């Protein structure tokens, strides 16, 4: 019997109302119900009064000292009071609106009561009476429910479903893996998740459930990847190697070994019959742009068009300038499409793109508008890919006939993310900075010491260096942010003008003004650029060697690392000054980590740990998929093992066809659609 196909309506007393209540929890089948696990457990071991903590829940055992009294108050409200002798102390226990419980208390009988402890009054607000022979075990399962359904009702349904169908719970994990990791079979696991007899059983069940969840998720990813690799419908881009070699020879610098290696990985992939879905990861300043340009050139020499999408206009403009200067001498046509262009400009360029007269197109999300179509798109590069939503990335892919995709990111991908969110992509890593780069010196000061920063800025400016001064989003209102940036801008003018030229850049400026300011800073007409976070990603001005960040505690670690990465791009020693008055330990910890390491990978791991350790909002923002039982950060070891086993399972196309994997295969084919949606 396939429990996924049996409706909850086969349980007693489950009619339309309960069906829709269960549906509101995402439960339709008996399978869904049995695998709707508690979101937490309450320890119901009997505790001594000495261990009772104010306002915490505790299970106390004692003798009923007096008959219970039910008092009514207000409209249909009542309270039941009963005294219980616990360790020779008389404790008052109160239950609200459960008058029927009075039958459970008979003077002189032993009783165990679970409730919330009030230290001041030496009293307990009762939650439930356990009775002396409690068969439910010492652990209480707590389910997440909503207003449509009560805990108790849900528990009873799960109990009935388990009694009725437990012999049909068949393990999906292949037997050899169950043995290898000493996992529970699914039937035993389901029992241990819902009705554990003790902590050990529950612990083992949870470990098994986590493995199961991660393994199935990873199988989904691996099967998608395997299918991608088996299909031979990718574009074959037969590029001109000689042309590429000449191009690289003419660059003003020699590529690092890491750059050469990833260029080869990417070009091989583009030339193969498989569709390329590759992530290029390289820390800020590692030189991803030139890798992307080389790949785009290769695509053009193979007779295709190439496109690069950047998250901001400033960045698109910067790419356009750089790419034009590199590729126009080779007689390639480079075009730019952004949201701020006039309709006429846009239409002209779009027309040239559609006709194939433009070889390389640079743009913002304006590239994915309906009005843009390509003649023959071969390669898409997505810069700072984490800035784009999945749908935007997809939209660009749909502009061609299954073009190759190269997504670039400066945010190092912790292993956790690499094997979940990005599990279907191949990864190329630039793990080396260009020679001669000096690590950036980072200092943290409190705002009361701000004078020190001014002196430092002056010292740097004297050497002919340029500085960024960044202020964060202080509020939702851009007006207030702007004011904040303007105040700093005025202060810097007061201190350093007219000897040094100060510029201001913020999100509310029209785009041509933004470009104007940026290009003045690039060409060193400005010495200091005061800016809101619009410069966070990608901006490349090698002569800038100082980054000052106001209210640094308002940024996340990765973001601070990105900002800091705007300097340290030339041969000169660079500095980063963080101004922050951290208000809690985590914020303080962040400042310390930043001043102690320049390693983006270490920072990304720390960032994820700090955000992912339990708080939901944090892990949502971290880009991790939702898991029900396992926490990919805390349970990383289980995740990694599950990933390796899943990878093994799909390494050879026929492994999944073996008889011992039959249940798994069937399960995946049912779940496939769901698993396929993780992207
Ligand atoms: P990111 O990876 O952060 O996008 P960029 O591509 O902007 O980095 O490169 C950072 C800077 O390093 C640029 O000024 C670029 O010209 C320079 N650069 C890139 N590769 C090398 C190299 N192999 N040697 C020296 N400088 C390089
Ligand atoms: Mg870049």
UniProtKB/TrEMBL annotation:
Record key words, sorted: ATP-binding, DNA damage, DNA recombination, DNA repair, DNA-binding, Helicase, Hydrolase, Isomerase, Nucleotide-binding
Entry EC no(s): 5.6.2.4
Any Gene Ontology biological process: DNA repair
UniProt catalytic activity: Couples ATP hydrolysis with the unwinding of duplex DNA by translocating in the 3'-5' direction; ATP + H2O = ADP + phosphate + H(+)
Gene3D superfamilies, per the entry: Nucleic acid-binding proteins (2.40.50.140), P-loop containing nucleotide triphosphate hydrolases (3.40.50.300)
GO molecular function: 3'-5' DNA helicase activity; ATP binding; ATP hydrolysis activity; DNA binding
Helicase C-terminal domain residues: 449-609
Cross-referenced InterPro entries: ATP-dep_DNA_helicase_RecG (IPR004609), DEAD/DEAH_box_helicase_dom (IPR011545), Helicase_ATP-bd (IPR014001), Helicase_C-like (IPR001650), NA-bd_OB-fold (IPR012340), P-loop_NTPase (IPR027417), RecG/Mfd (IPR047112), RecG_dom3_C (IPR045562)
Signal peptide coordinates: none
Function: Plays a critical role in recombination and DNA repair. Helps process Holliday junction intermediates to mature products by catalyzing branch migration. Has replication fork regression activity, unwinds stalled or blocked replication forks to make a HJ that can be resolved. Has a DNA unwinding activity characteristic of a DNA helicase with 3'-5' polarity.
Family: Belongs to the helicase family. RecG subfamily.
Protein name, as recorded: ATP-dependent DNA helicase RecG
Organism: Companilactobacillus versmoldensis DSM 14857 = KCTC 3814
């Amino acid at each position: 019997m396939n429990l996924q196909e049996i409706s909850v309506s086969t349980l007693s007393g489950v009619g339309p109302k309960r069906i829709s209540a269960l549906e509101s929890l995402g439960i339709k089948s008996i399978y869904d119900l049995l695998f709707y696990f508690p979101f937490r457990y309450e320890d119901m071991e009997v505790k001594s009064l000495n261990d009772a903590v104010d306002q915490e829940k505790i299970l106390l055992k004692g003798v009923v000292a007096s008959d219970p009294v039910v008092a009514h108050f207000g409209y249909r409200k009542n309270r039941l009071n009963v005294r219980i002798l616990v360790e020779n102390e008389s404790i008052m226990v109160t239950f609200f609106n459960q008058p029927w419980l009075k039958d459970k208390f008979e003077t002189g009988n032993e009783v165990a009561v679970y409730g919330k402890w009030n230290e001041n009054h030496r009293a307990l607000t009762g939650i439930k009476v356990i009775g002396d022979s409690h068969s439910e075990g010492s652990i209480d399962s707590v389910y997440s429910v909503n207003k449509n359904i009560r805990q108790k009702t849900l528990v009873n349904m799960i109990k009935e479903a388990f009694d009725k169908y437990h012999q049909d719970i068949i393990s999906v994990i292949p037997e050899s893996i169950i043995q290898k990791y000493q996992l529970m079979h699914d039937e035993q696991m389901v029992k241990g998740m819902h009705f554990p007899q003790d902590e050990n059983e529950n612990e083992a069940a949870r470990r098994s459930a986590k493995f199961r969840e991660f393994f199935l998720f990873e199988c989904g990813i691996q099967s998608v990847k395997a299918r991608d690799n088996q299909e031979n419908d990718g574009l074959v881009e037969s590029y001109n190697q000689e042309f590429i070699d000449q191009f690289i020879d003419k660059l003003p610098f020699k590529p690092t070994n890491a750059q050469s290696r990833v260029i080869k990985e990417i070009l091989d992939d583009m030339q193969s019959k498989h569709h390329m879905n590759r992530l290029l990861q390289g820390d800020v300043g590692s030189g991803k742009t030139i890798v992307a340009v080389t790949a785009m050139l290769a695509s053009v020499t193979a007779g295709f068009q190439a496109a690069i999408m950047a998250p901001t206009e400033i960045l698109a403009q910067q790419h356009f300038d750089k790419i034009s200067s590199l590729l126009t001498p080779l007689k390639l046509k480079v075009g730019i499409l952004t949201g701020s262009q006039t309709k006429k400009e846009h239409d002209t360029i779009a027309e040239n793109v559609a006709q194939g007269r433009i070889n390389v197109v640079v743009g913002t999300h304006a590239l994915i508008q309906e009005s843009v179509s390509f003649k023959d798109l071969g390669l898409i590069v997505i810069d700072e890919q984490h800035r784009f939503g999945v749908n935007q990335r997809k939209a660009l892919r749909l502009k061609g006939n299954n073009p190759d995709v190269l997504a670039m990111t400066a945010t190092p991908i912790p292993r956790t993310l690499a094997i979940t969110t990005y599990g279907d992509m191949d990864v190329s890593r630039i793990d080396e900075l260009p020679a001669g780069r000096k690590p950036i010196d980072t200092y943290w000061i409190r705002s009361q010491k701000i004078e020190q920063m001014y002196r430092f800025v002056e010292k740097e400016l004297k050497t002919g260096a340029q500085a960024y001064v960044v202020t964060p989003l202080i509020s939702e209102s851009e007006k207030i942010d702007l004011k904040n940036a303007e105040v700093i801008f005025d202060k810097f003018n007061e201190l350093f003008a007219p000897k040094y030229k100060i510029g201001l850049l913020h999100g509310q400026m029209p785009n041509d003004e933004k470009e104007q300011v940026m290009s003045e800073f690039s060409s060193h007409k400005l010495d200091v650029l005061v800016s809101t976070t619009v410069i966070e990603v990608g901006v490349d001005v090698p002569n800038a060697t100082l980054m000052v960040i106001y209210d640094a505690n308002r940024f996340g670690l990765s973001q601070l690392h990105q900002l800091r990465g705007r300097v340290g791009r030339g041969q000169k020693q660079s500095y980063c000054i963080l101004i922050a008055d951290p208000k809690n330990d985590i914020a303080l910890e962040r400042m310390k980590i930043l001043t102690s390491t320049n390693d983006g990978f270490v920072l990304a791991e720390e960032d994820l740990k700090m955000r992912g350790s339990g708080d939901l909002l944090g892990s949502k923002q971290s880009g991790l998929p939702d898991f029900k039982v396992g926490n990919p950060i805390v349970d990383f070891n289980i995740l990694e093992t599950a990933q390796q086993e899943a990878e093994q399972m799909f390494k050879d196309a026929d492994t999944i066809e073996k008889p011992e994997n039959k249940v798994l295969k069937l399960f995946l084919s049912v779940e496939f659609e769901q698993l396929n949606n993780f992207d």
